[in-house]
Amino acid sequence: MKAHGAVVSNHISWLDIVALHGCQQVVFVSKSEVAGWPGIGFLARFVGTVFIRRDPKEARAQRDRLVRAMDEGAKLMLFPEGTSTDGMRVLPFKSALFDMMFTSEMHKDLFVQPISLVYAAPPSSSDPRVYGWWGDMDLGPHLIQVLARRRQGAVQVTFHPPLAVRDFAERKALARTCEHMIREGMPKSQRGTN
């Protein structure tokens, strides 16, 4: 997508940063705690992530900061599930991040492009969730487990048609449509919410 606005995707792992940044130039948006995480914090800073605080007192200032970035031509990368998963499902999208698209003075010119990420485990793995990093999993062991494999699997990145923000009355409708499109890009067994 060449137009500015946002790209939204399901979220499976720290590997998503590598997979998505390799496909197009985007500005990742992440909670501020990630900046201090060993390894991932460095990777996130390296690709130019914008870190935001989840403090209700700062919500408006954080939103305005992201709106300014879009108005200046940035494509923001958002993970509306709010957390990563095992890759075997798509969680319901939170619509709060979509609000900034309706706040921007340029909202009629903004686009949102949904992307479906699907990881395929290496043939030698008995666990199809090998690339998923979720819950309270420790980062170090997961990095070693993934990077030490002699043969790797694959990631499929499906770009869905961009959606014009002006075609939606409000953020919840836009979030629902993005979630539906991303689910449709997943294997049938991975479209559920549980």
Descriptive report:
With 194 residues, the chain is α/β, with parallel strands linked by helices. Helix content is 28%, strand content 18%. The protein has one domain. It contains 6 helices and 7 strands, in the order βαβαβαβαβαββα. Strands 1, 2, 3, 4, 5, 6 and 7 form a 7-stranded mixed β-sheet that branches. It is globular, with a radius of gyration of 16 Å. The relative contact order is 0.22. The mean pLDDT is 89.
Question: Could you provide a short overview of the structure?
Answer:
This protein has 194 residues and is α/β, with parallel strands linked by helices. It has helices spanning 15-21, 40-46, 59-71, 99-103, 139-147, 171-184, and strands at residues 5-9, 27-31, 50-52, 75-78, 111-120, 154-159, 163-164. It has one domain.
Biggest β-sheet description: 7 strands, mixed
Give average pLDDT, whole number: 89
Distance between the termini: 31 Å
Low-confidence stretches: none
Radius of gyration: 16 Å
SS summary, helix count = 6
How many beta-strand elements? 7
Please give the share of residues in helix: 25-40%
Category by helix and strand content: alpha/beta
Question: How many structurally independent domains?
Answer: 1
Reconstruct the topology from this structure:
Layout: E1 5-9, H1 15-21, E2 27-31, H2 40-46, E3 50-52, H3 59-71, E4 75-78, H4 99-103, E5 111-120, H5 139-147, E6 154-159, E7 163-164, H6 171-184
Parallel strand pairs: 1-4, 1-5, 2-3, 2-4
Antiparallel strand pairs: 5-6, 5-7
